[in-house]
Structures are given as structure tokens and as C-alpha cells.
Design goal:
- The complex is a heterodimer of chains A (517) and B (772).
- By secondary structure, chain A is an alpha/beta fold.
- Helices cover 53% and strands 19% of the residues of chain A.
- In chain A, helix 2 (56-76) packs parallel to helix 4 and helix 5 crosses helix 13.
- The termini of chain A are far apart.
- With 772 residues, chain B is α/β, with parallel strands linked by helices.
- Chain B contains 22 helices and 29 strands.
- In chain B, the strands form five sheets. In chain B, strands 16, 20, 21, 22, 23, 25, 26, 27, 28 and 29 form a ten-stranded mixed sheet that branches. In chain B, strands 12, 13, 14, 15, 17, 18, 19 and 24 form an eight-stranded mixed sheet that branches.
- Chain B is globular and about 90 Å long.
- Chain B starts with a helix and ends in a 17-residue tail after the last helix.
- Classes of the chains: A alpha/beta (517), B alpha/beta (772).
- The A-B interface holds A 1, 5-7, 9, 19, 26-29, 33-41, 65, 68-69, 71-72, 74-77 and B 425-426, 428-429, 456, 458, 485, 503, 505-510, 512, 542-543, 546-547, 550, 553-557, 559.
């Protein structure tokens, strides 16, 4: 029986902070059809947020859960199995040992998703569900995901996410604080509210949210809150009036989780998570003018498993990711007063060169995006220090959080933007030598391209137009028209050309045609 | 006492509370209805303890004896073939044995520990034990009266006779002598009882003979055969026990004038007992039988549950005696001796006027060559109508949900489902729950075959199926050896649901096929019990089934079930909500009604809600085969509730629930009765019937049972059960009707197929058919 006669079946395991879940799905009539959804409680988060490490007992529980999941996977002969983990394991000091034990005992290679990757997936699913339900707002909207370990906040302008931030204070983490506060004060409700407010009120969040009327939230406690406020799940989402959520919070604000648990027939842990999630949601919504909270079904594992099963879906996600990364990068660039005209110009030239070279040089779509990032953000450093703007730019870019961009992406972008016509990459520089070898080579290539492009707008006056990039007799030829003096650009170009040739093994020349002729 | 107007107003408003004893008095005519609380308890009909909820509740043990009495009625019923009457009599015996081993034993333990908390019916264990003893003594008398005065004479009339050696002729005596010498003597071991040899350990339910001897010299008795020359001293009394071999058939056919003449084993042994005690004077021989407490205590936290259960099975054999049966011919000295040795209380001694251990009549009912004295053989139709024309069972289920009613329709449909799954190369996995399986189970064989064919086979074996533990352990080990993944369920929860899940890979993706039923995966009991099963491949059921198995396997938290109702995760809430909805609908003037068929109705919470519903005007029809703790027909409480019990040729076993739901009736079937253990302490499954054709069929099944006026007895408000009178209507034996209908359907389909030149692949059932 040939396997390709049957639709592909895939499994996705998500090792979370309080539970490990698995989904097995297939595509039926073009849509994702979930066959199995399992969840097994493994309290990774509890270990990590209290001690910083995952205990051996918890590792054993995790492996037991995974072994059970593998049994179920065998029952469906799933062709592809992927495993991811997010916040709790990401933060664990002994993450490497844990993942190693998992690999040895179960054969699973667990991919550790960075926070920004995770949020990107969640927002993607939220937008997708809203769009499918015809409920995607057309004006500025605040999106938020309250997780166990962090709170993600993003702004959507009707077309794309344009700004984001991550507050490293999630419900589970707050729980540790909450428990200690309860021992020392009866007014723990106010203390928690104050703490949350202080965590959220920076980076002009209040200001940015002031005029927002649409909020879209998600998180593990939403369904519990919806049930308790009697809001049904219709059209693939909950619509929870802010007033109802506030009333619920007011009812439980002064109660301890144990009594909330008894009253509402919840476990104590759920009661605690509920309490803290409510506090977080209400703090966020208080910055806006929204009166209803939309909460669509949004499980990041849906996006991942869809990407496994449908190549087109993967492309769609990549496109979305590209858009939001660059959109957020644009917002960051504006924040640092970068010259947009210059960034766009350099970006255009860089991409033309990249597209000409990528096929021969094994450069990927992701590398292209990182090059774009470097172009957009390369002037950030000027806002910090005019004298050391290159190093400052490197530091700023490297530590900027952009939804969808990994730390590796940002490090590479920072490395690329670190150099101009006056500074050439020095392979002995620790900032480069500490990179893995394949990344080092990639960084060199992308830097070489960037420096050339940057050189061609050395004066920030975008002199050249009709720029084309061709390959002629083993030489890259960049040509364009101008009627202006190109002396400085030519000089800068020559400074960068030798490095380019060194890296690519290809010559490079600039051909300028007089626009007046 | 409230006047009629006031009563009517209260009834209309639906707010009437049963607060007055006067109302209860009225509804139990003839009862010496007490006024004081303690007197109420003595009546066995006691409101619940909470003063704000004074609903009546009938004690479950007492109700159970009433059920066994209904089975005994069938033994009395002269219209039943005589060997079937023997079988019924045997069943009452085995039922009573199990009742003593578990239920009476439990009460006795409470009494022994001086536990005196009142149960929900208001009785203390001591009071209950006393009432039970009286009731069972009375019942036992009726059993033997039935045997002596009705069954034995009828058998004789049919040419079948039991005789004792005293009435035998020479030829017969020679025959039994020869039998004794060749077959019995070699296996008999008399066990003397004296100072150096304590009373022997006797197996539970074994039949034994206590021999009272006159011993010339006790020492000589002890050392008999050693020194015959020693002078005998003054004779003294001694006792010995001879076990009647359980491995040999209890009744022996001997030559005689009647067509068939039989003699009982114990009579033969007694006749030649002197051969076992040569040199001693036998003063008396008294058969006796002992029943032990057999309720297992299992430590589910034990490291190895298998080992723990095996150990517990051994302990069961050593439980304390809870009943001693003696024949009426037993002499007082022997009776006193046995009672003392076995330490049984007076109420636990049953003196019977006939052969002990009536279960022998269950085997006797199968004697060869006398089919004329039994029910006509019931041959289930095969294939069932729903599968007519299909060789591919998966195709049949894909086309439509299917229903099979056993034993009228063959259990082969279920076996074939598993067999086909085992052989089908597209099947990836099979999962099944096993509670009680037959000796040479074809289902087990199919599962083993599936594992050998590379399927992922998961079997949930419930080790704690009472009295089937050893059987289930054996099957579990066999399945494991074959490569099946055997799991034993969750600690503290007995898995009682009956479900099979097949995962199949098809061109449009994975599809899950299910069988869910009311009966065990046991091809033997499927011929004797009435049960219903449904086959489906609807996706919501598939998701629920997978979630259930993942939970039972310990792989995942219990899911939120979409269609299925699963205990203990929400079944109680679901049933309560369904009943409450009927109450609310009645109050709003919407169509309302409940029809439920269960084996037992014991749960106080459900009973209370049914009373509430009745008081709100909901018409409630209950078909309760066995224990019913609800009392119908009480004014102001349950006048809208009618309870019938169907006891007939087949054991009613299916559970069906219908709720009128404001005019859009819903119907469910499943594994759960309305007992606390089902709702709270077991994993049970109740499923809705969604297919419109199958819904109609299910409604018709219930209607047919409700119209039974042959095997059905109605429970009255005084807790008596009376036969439903025909009153000019035709006699309706629901079980016979189902047999007829299944056969007719089969014949119609066969005729249609033969008549059609094209021999169509399938003959779909018309949605207009209103027969079952």
C-alpha cells in the first residue's frame, strides 16, 4: 500500500509551562482536521520559576508523557512529528540536559522556540481566526497574549502588526510573587494590581493605547473567564464585555485562591491563574477605550501543524512573518529617527544584489529578510552616540525584540549593520569570531552586500536612479543614472569592492550613466 | 390534612413539597403507617435523613430479594417449559449465592463491627440484617415449595423423575453401588473432626455431608485400622465431613421405569457412607452447604495490581461464613455442631426442605434429548438487517450508523467488526474495553490476530470484574504475549464502558469506526442477555472515543466530551440536567416525559429528581429489571411514575434513556445504570442516537417493552409487583416479539434479494418502517 495514496498525518508536540500537549492532524477537504488533542500535566514552569531548573522528577514525568504520546502517534502512523517548547524550558538553566534526556529516551528533537517566534505564531493564528470569522478589525487594535511566563503585546494597524513588546511577567511567574504576598498582607489584590501596572507602564504603552477601541486577547484562562461570565463560544471566538470581566474580578479580588477554587469548583492552581490573568487583562484593557474583548481560538500549534501539512500554508506564514518583522522594524527605526529614504534606498540595492547572488551562494529567504532588517535599522546607533554609532547600532539592533525574529536573526542583522565603508569586518573581532562558522560566512556575505549598497548612498541623497544589477563575465555590475556628482559614492564603493570580491570571489563594478545624456 | 383544593393548588404550582406524613400514609394503603420516626424506619420505607427532603426510598437489598422473587415467579409459571422453569429455579439459587457472598456479607460485616449508622432508607445494619433474614427465609421456603410442589411433579408427568435410594429397586441399587465403587469411592476423603483434627477448611459454596458417628473408642476412631485387637470402650459421638465432589455432575441418570430417572450424588454417597467408616456406627448423615463472604478487598495502590488481585482471589476463598444451609432432615446435634464450628448466627442458618444448592437445576435444564421441554432454540439472525447486503463492514458504517439488537440479531456482527479490522491492511489501530469475556472468546482471538498483523492494539482489561478476575487476568496475559498493549484502567475506577475503536487510513484521511454498546464483549452472554450496540464513524464520536481511551491509558487529561456522556466526568450532571429540563418543560407547559430502561435504580440523587419531575407533572415510565429504590404511585410524590420489571426467557440488560425534550425527543443508550457506583465510581459511557432511522427504531424498542403484558410486572406503591393484566388486549411478550420481528425482517430481505434479478448490493432500510 503506497503511503502517498493517503493524506499526510502529522503530529505536533508542544511542551508548555504547565502541560505538555500533542495534536495529530490531517488535511481534509483543504482544511486542517484535528484528529487527536492530548494534554498531560507537567509542571515545568513551577520548577523553573521557583528554582530556575527542571527537577529530575519533572523530567521523568515529561518523558512519561512523551512516551505516551509516541504510542498514540504510532496508532496513526504519523509521517511527520515535530516537537517544540517555549517559555519554561527556554528559561531553564539545565535546558540542554533536559532536551538531551528527552532525545535519548524518546528520539524526539525538541525545537526551542524563542519568545518572539512563539508570539508570532500566536498572533498569526489570532489574525487568521478573526479574518476567517470576518471579525478582524480594520483600525488600530491591541493584541495580547497572557502566557505563563510572559505577556505579549502587539499593535495591529488593520493590515499588519507594526509594533510589539514582551513583558517578562506571566501568570505563572506572578503566582510565585502572589503566594509570598498573601503571607504578608491581606491587601494582596491591590499589591498585585500595582505590580502589574508598574510592569506594563513603560515604553509609552499607556499613550500608545489611549485611542484604541479594539482589543484581542488570548491565553489559557480565557475559556474559564468566558464560562464564568457566561459568554458563549460562537463563531470561533469569545466576546467578553469588559464590564463583565471587571465584575468578575471585583467579586474575587479580595479572596484567596483556595476560596475561589471552592466557590467556583476549580483547582487551586487554576483559581490562582484565573486571578492573575484577570488582573493582567484588566490592566491592559484599562489603557484603551475598548468595551469588549475579542478572544479567538488561537493555538500556535495549529499554525505549526498546518505548516507541516500544507506547503502553501508555510509560505503564507513566512510571508506574514516577513511582513510583521519588517513592519515592527520600521516602527523601531522611526523610534530611533532613522532616515527612511536612505534605508529604503539601501534596501532596494541590497535586495537586487542579493537576488542576483542568492542562487549561487546558498543564501535563503530568511537571510534576505535579515539583510532587509539590517538596512532598515542600520542607523539606530546615531540616536545613541554619534561618535560610536556603529557599535551602538550593533548593540541596539542585537537587543531589539521584534515579533517573529529570533535572537540569531537580530545578531546577524546587527553584525551586518555594524560595518560601513570605513570599517571592514575583521574576522578576529570577537563579535564575529564567536559566531558559528556557517553564520560567520553568511554574515560576511551579507555584510559585503550591505556595505556596497550603503556606500552607494554615502551622502544620504539617493543620487542614483534606475539601478540595475547584472552579472557580466564573472563580475557583478551595478549600473544607474544620475546627473549628480558621484565622487564620494564612487570612493566609498571602491573601499568596499575589495572585500566584496574577497568574500564572493567575484568582481564588482559600478557603472554610472549620465542622466542628462 | 390539606383539603383537596389546597392539594390541587399545590400540585398545579409545582411547588408542593412532600412535607406531610399524611400524604405518605394515603399512598401506601394497608400499611400500618407509623407516626414516630423510629416506627417509620421499621416499615422499611423511610424518608431520607434530611428533614427538608423527605422523599421515600426503598432499601436496595430488600428490593433485590423482590427481584429474585420475580425470577422465582418464572419458575412457578406453568406456561414456561418445565426445564426452563428448572433453569429459573437454578438462577434464583445462584443469584442468592452471590447476594449472600457480597451484599449480605457486607451487611453482616457492619453488624459485626457494631456500625449502626442508618442508610438512606433509614435502616441500621442490624435492622436491615433482621429484615433481610426474614425475607430470605421466606423466599427460600418458596423456592423449595416451587420445587417440591410444582416442578418435580411436572417433571414426573413428563417422564423425568428424581428418586432416592430408599425408593430404588435392586437393579437401581446395584447400579448406584457400582457407580459408587468405581467413580465416587476413589475420590472421597472423609475428614474426621476431633481434638487433634480441627474442623476442616471447606470451600465456598461446596456441598458437604456431616456424618455423626458413634465411636467405640475415640482413640480407636483416631487410630482405626492400626490395632484391631484393642478392647473397645464405651461408644462416644464424633463427627466427620465428606465433601461431595464438585467436579462430578451432581445428578446421575440411572435405569428406571420413567423415561429418565435421576439420583443425586449426595444420596448415593449417604447410601454407601458405611463404606467410608467401616467399624463405626453412623448415627446420621446430613448434607450441608456454606457460603462465605467473597467481597474482595483490593489495595489499588499496590505496586503490582495483578499480583494484588491474585492474592485477593485466594483470600476470597477464606472469607467468613455468611450462610449455612441444612436439610430439614438434619438432626439437632449435627445442626448444633455445625453452627458452633462455623460460628454462624441463628439468622444465617437456612433449613431447606429439599436438595441443597439449587444451582444444580441450571445444569439440569440442559440435559440432552429433551428439547421439547425447553424454549425453542433462539437462533439470532445473521447478518442483522442493518448489515444486509454488505461484506465490507466499514462501507456499511460509512454509509450510515448501524444498530444491532442482541440476541435477536447475531453478535457475529460485533465479532466480524473486530475480525475485519484485524485483517484490513488499512486499519492502523484497534482499541477495546473488556469487562467480562467468554471462555473461548472470538473477540480476543481477533485482537491477537490484529496484533500479529502489525496493528497497534490496545485493550483495557478490567481486572476487578467481580468473580471474573481470574478469567480476566488470564486473558490479559495472553493479549500481552501476543503483542497487545494491555492496560488495566485507572486506580479507584472500574472500567465498565463497552466500546471498540478502529482507526483506519482511507483515501480522504484517517477515519475512526466505533462500536458502542450496552453489553459486554462476550459472545456467550450475548445469546442470553438483551443488549443493543451501535456502529458509527461520525467524527465527534471518534474524537470523544480517542479522548476517552487516551484518558484511560493515562496519556492525557480527560477531554471535554462533545457527544458522549462519560462517568465519572459529568454523567451525573448530564442526567440531572436532562431530568431537570423535563421538570422545567413541564412547568412551562411544554411536552415532557422520561422513559428509562435500566437494570437497577438506586441512586438517591436521581430518584429525588424523578420525584421532583413527577410532582411537576412529568410522565415517567421506568423499566427496571432488578433493584428499584424508587416507590411509584405515591400521591404527591410519584403518582406520575410507573415502574415495570421485565423478567423472561432472556435477561434484560440494555440501558436506554429517552427524554421528550420539549417535543424534540432525545434518546441515549449505554453501559450505566442509575446507581451511585455507575455514576460516580466507574468509567461508563452513554451515547446519543443521532441517526433518525435508528432513533425511530430505539423509540419503537422502548415502546414494545413498555407494552409487554406477559413478562412485565408493575411495581405498586406498596412495593409489590403484580402482573400486568391484558384486559382484552392481545398478549405481548416483548422478547418474543423482538425475535419475530428480527426474523421477519431477515426473511423479507432475503426474499427481496432472491426476487431481484440484479441482486442489488444493499437493501437500505426504509425510513418509514416503524418496526424494530
Amino acid at each position: 500500500m503506497k503511503a502517498n495514496r493517503y493524506p499526510k498525518v502529522a503530529a505536533l508536540i508542544d511542551i508548555g509551562s504547565s502541560e505538555t500537549r500533542m495534536q495529530i492532524a490531517q488535511i481534509r477537504k483543504g482544511k486542517l482536521n484535528r484528529i487527536e488533542a492530548l494534554s498531560y500535566p507537567v509542571a515545568l514552569g513551577r520548577d523553573v520559576y521557583s528554582t530556575g531548573r527542571v527537577s529530575q522528577a519533572t523530567v521523568r514525568e515529561l518523558i512519561k508523557a512523551l512516551e505516551g504520546f509516541l504510542n498514540v502517534i504510532r496508532e496513526y502512523a504519523a509521517e511527520e512529528v515535530a516537537a517544540v517548547t517555549t517559555n519554561a524550558l527556554r528559561r531553564a538553566e539545565n535546558r540542554g540536559f533536559v532536551l538531551d534526556q528527552v532525545k535519548i529516551r524518546t528520539g524526539l528533537d525538541v525545537m526551542v522556540l524563542e519568545d518572539n517566534e512563539e508570539k508570532s505564531l500566536i498572533y498569526y493564528e489570532m489574525i487568521r481566526t478573526l479574518r476567517e470569522s470576518d471579525a478582524l478589525p480594520e483600525d488600530t487594535t491591541l493584541f495580547s497574549f497572557v502566557g505563563a511566563g510572559s505577556v505579549g503585546i502587539a499593535f495591529y494597524n488593520g493590515k499588519t502588526m507594526y509594533d510589539s513588546m514582551t513583558v517578562p511577567t506571566g501568570a505563572l511567574q506572578l503566582g510565585e510573587l502572589f503566594r509570598s504576598i498573601q503571607q504578608t498582607t491581606d491587601d494582596f489584590g491591590q499589591v498585585i494590581a500595582d505590580y502589574i501596572h508598574s510592569s506594563l507602564t513603560y515604553d509609552n504603552l499607556e499613550v500608545d493605547c489611549r485611542n484604541i477601541r479594539n482589543v484581542v486577547f488570548t491565553g489559557s484562562m480565557i475559556s474559564v473567564i468566558a464560562a464564568m461570565t457566561d459568554c458563549p463560544f460562537t463563531g470561533n471566538m469569545y466576546r467578553i464585555p469588559v464590564s463583565k470581566m471587571r465584575d468578575l474580578y471585583d467579586q474575587i479580588r479580595a479572596e484567596r485562591p483556595e476560596s475561589i477554587a471552592l466557590r467556583y469548583k476549580l483547582s487551586t492552581r487554576t483559581a490562582e491563574m484565573l486571578y492573575l490573568s484577570l488582573a493582567l487583562y484588566l490592566s491592559l484593557v484599562s489603557f484603551t477605550q475598548a468595551d469588549t474583548i475579542l478572544s479567538p481560538r488561537s493555538d500556535m500549534s495549529d499554525c505549526l501543524i498546518r505548516s507541516i501539512l500544507l506547503p502553501a500554508e508555510l509560505e503564507s506564514y513566512k510571508e506574514y512573518q516577513h511582513d510583521i518583522i519588517l513592519s515592527c522594524a520600521d516602527t523601531t527605526a522611526r523610534f530611533y529617527h532613522c532616515n527612511k529614504a536612505n534605508s529604503d534606498y539601501i534596501r532596494d540595492i541590497s535586495l537586487k544584489m542579493f537576488d542576483r547572488l542568492a542562487g549561487q551562494q546558498s543564501l535563503s529567504h530568511r537571510d534576505r529578510m535579515v539583510l532587509e532588517l539590517a538596512c532598515v535599522l542600520h542607523e539606530c546607533g546615531h540616536a545613541v552616540s554619534a561618535r560610536h554609532h556603529l557599535q551602538s547600532g550593533y548593540d541596539v539592533i542585537r537587543h531589539t525584540d521584534l515579533i517573529g525574529a529570533t535572537k540569531s536573526d537580530m545578531l546577524l542583522a546587527a553584525t551586518i549593520a555594524r560595518y560601513n565603508e570605513l570599517e571592514e569586518p575583521d574576522m578576529s573581532d570577537p563579535q564575529i569570531s564567536s559566531l558559528p562558522e556557517d553564520i560567520r560566512t553568511k554574515a560576511a556575505k551579507l555584510t559585503a552586500i550591505f556595505r556596497i549598497a550603503n556606500a552607494l548612498d554615502n551622502t544620504h541623497t539617493e543620487k542614483l536612479s534606475d539601478i540595475t544589477v547584472r552579472m557580466r563575465e564573472e563580475t557583478i555590475e551595478i549600473s544607474g543614472r544620475t546627473s549628480e556628482n558621484m565622487y564620494l559614492e564612487n570612493y566609498a564603493f571602491k573601499q568596499c569592492a575589495a572585500y566584496f570580491t574577497d568574500v564572493f570571489g567575484t568582481g564588482i563594478r559600478l557603472r554610472v550613466r549620465n542622466a542628462l545624456k | 390534612m390539606p383539603d383537596d383544593k389546597e392539594k390541587n393548588e399545590k400540585k398545579k404550582s409545582g411547588d408542593a413539597k412532600v412535607s406531610s406524613m399524611e400524604n405518605l400514609k394515603e399512598s401506601i394503603p394497608g400499611a400500618a403507617f407509623p407516626t414516630a420516626k423510629t416506627d417509620v424506619i421499621a416499615a422499611g420505607v423511610k424518608p431520607l435523613e434530611k428533614p427538608e427532603n423527605p422523599y421515600p426510598y426503598y432499601n436496595r437489598e430488600l428490593s433485590w430479594v423482590d427481584f429474585d422473587a420475580r425470577v422465582l415467579d418464572e419458575a412457578y409459571e406453568t406456561e414456561n417449559p418445565v426445564l426452563e422453569r428448572c433453569r429459573f429455579l437454578g438462577i434464583t439459587g445462584s443469584n442468592l449465592d452471590e447476594f449472600f457472598m457480597v451484599r449480605v456479607a457486607g451487611v453482616q460485616v457492619q453488624v459485626d463491627h457494631k456500625y449502626n449508622k442508618r442508610d438512606v432508607s433509614g435502616l441500621t445494619p442490624e435492622q436491615l440484617y433482621k429484615q433481610l433474614s426474614e425475607k430470605i427465609h421466606d423466599f427460600s421456603e418458596k423456592q423449595y415449595s416451587c420445587l417440591r410442589r410444582s416442578i418435580l411433579p411436572t417433571l414426573k408427568h413428563e417422564g423425568i423423575e428424581f428418586i432416592r435410594p430408599a425408593k430404588m429397586n435392586e437393579k437401581q441399587l446395584a447400579f448406584i453401588r457400582s457407580y459408587f465403587d468405581k467413580v465416587l469411592f476413589p475420590v472421597l476423603t472423609p475428614l474426621a473432626i476431633d481434638n487433634s483434627r480441627p474442623f476442616p477448611f471447606l470451600a465456598n459454596k461446596s456441598l458437604n455431608i456431616c456424618v455423626r458417628l458413634s465411636v467405640a473408642d475415640p482413640a480407636e476412631f483416631e487410630n482405626r485400622g492400626k490395632d484391631k485387637k484393642k478392647k473397645a470402650k464405651k461408644p462416644q459421638e464424633a463427627f466427620a465431613v465428606v465433601q461431595v465432589p464438585g467436579i462430578i455432575q451432581r445428578f446421575l441418570e440411572i435405569p428406571g421405569e420413567a423415561e429418565h430417572t435421576y439420583c443425586l450424588l449426595e444420596d448415593i454417597i449417604i447410601c454407601f457412607m458405611d463404606r467410608l467408616f467401616e467399624g463405626n456406627e453412623i448415627l446420621s448423615c446430613s448434607p450441608f452447604r456454606m457460603t462465605r463472604n467473597s467481597d474482595l478487598e483490593i489495595d489499588e495502590d499496590a505496586e503490582d495490581l495483578l499480583i494484588e488481585i491474585r492474592e485477593s482471589i485466594k483470600k476470597r476463598k477464606r472469607g467468613k461464613p455468611v450462610r449455612l444451609e441444612l436439610m430439614s432432615s438434619c438432626d439437632p446435634a449435627t445442626a448444633k455442631f455445625l453452627a458452633g464450628q462455623l460460628e454462624v448466627r441463628k439468622e444465617a442458618i437456612y433449613v431447606e426442605n429439599g436438595p441443597l444448592d439449587l444451582t444444580l437445576f441450571s445444569k439440569f435444564a440442559n440435559i440432552e434429548g429433551e428439547d421439547r421441554l425447553r424454549y425453542p432454540k433462539l437462533t439470532p439472525v445473521n447478518p442483522p438487517a442493518d448489515f444486509w447486503g454488505y461484506t465490507d463492514i466499514f462501507q456499511a458504517i460509512r454509509d450510515k450508523d448501524r444498530m444491532v439488537q442482541h440476541p435477536y440479531e447475531s453478535f457475529d456482527a460485533v465479532v466480524n467488526f473486530v475480525r475485519q479490522a484485524a485483517e484490513d491492511p488499512d486499519v492502523l489501530a484497534i482499541k477495546e474495553t473488556l469487562y467480562r469475556v467468554s471462555g473461548h472468546s472470538p473477540i480476543i482471538a481477533a485482537l491477537i490476530r490484529a496484533a500479529e498483523n502489525g496493528k497497534q492494539v490496545t485493550v483495557l482489561v478490567e481486572l476487578k470484574a467481580r468473580f471474573d478476575e481470574e478469567n480476566n487476568i488470564n486473558w490479559a496475559l495472553k493479549l500481552e504475549q501476543a503483542g497487545c498493549h494491555v492496560i488495566y484502567g485507572l486506580v479507584g475506577l472500574k472500567t465498565h464502558c463497552k466500546i471498540t475503536l478502529v482507526v483506519r487510513r482511507e483515501e480522504d484521511g484517517i477515519r475512526r469506526y466505533l462500536h458502542m454498546g450496552t453489553g459486554n464483549y462476550n459472545d456467550s452472554t450475548a445469546r442470553l442477555y438483551t443488549d443493543i450496540g451501535m456502529f458509527t464513524c461520525r467524527e465527534p464520536f471518534g474524537m470523544d472515543a480517542s479522548g476517552l481511551f487516551n484518558f484511560l491509558s493515562g496519556y492525557s487529561r480527560p477531554p471535554v466530551f462533545g457527544e458522549m456522556i462519560v462517568a465519572p466526568h459529568g454523567m451525573r450532571d448530564s442526567f440531572e440536567a436532562l431530568i431537570r429540563r423535563e421538570t422545567e418543560n413541564a412547568k412551562k407547559g411544554l411536552p415532557s416525559g422520561i422513559t428509562a430502561k435500566v437494570n437497577s435504580l438506586v441512586d438517591p440523587g436521581i430518584i429525588n429528581l424523578l420525584y421532583d419531575a413527577s410532582r411537576a407533572g412529568v410522565t415517567i415510565h421506568l423499566i427496571v429489571r432488578g433493584i428499584c429504590c424508587l416507590i411509584p404511585g405515591l400521591v404527591g410524590v410519584s403518582e406520575n411514575i410507573t415502574v415495570i420489571s421485565i423478567v423472561g426467557q432472556l435477561l434484560e440488560h440494555s440501558r436506554i434513556f429517552r427524554f421528550e425534550n420539549g417535543g424534540n425527543p432525545r434518546i441515549f443508550m449505554g453501559s450505566a445504570d442509575w446507581m451511585p457506583r455507575n455514576l460516580d465510581r466507574r468509567v461508563e459511557l452513554v451515547f446519543p442516537i443521532l441517526d433518525e432511522d435508528l432513533k425511530k427504531r430505539a423509540f419503537a424498542i422502548l415502546d414494545m417493552m413498555w407494552s409487554d403484558n406477559v413478562n412485565a410486572r408493575q411495581m405498586m406503591s406498596n412495593k409489590d409487583y403484580v402482573h400486568i393484566e391484558h384486559r382484552g388486549r392481545p398478549a405481548v411478550n416483548s422478547q418474543q416479539e423482538f425475535i419475530r420481528i428480527a426474523r421477519e425482517k431477515f426473511d423479507r430481505l432475503k426474499a427481496a434479494q432472491s426476487a431481484s434479478p440484479a441482486h442489488p448490493k444493499e437493501t437500505p432500510r426504509s425510513a418509514d418502517e416503524d418496526e424494530i
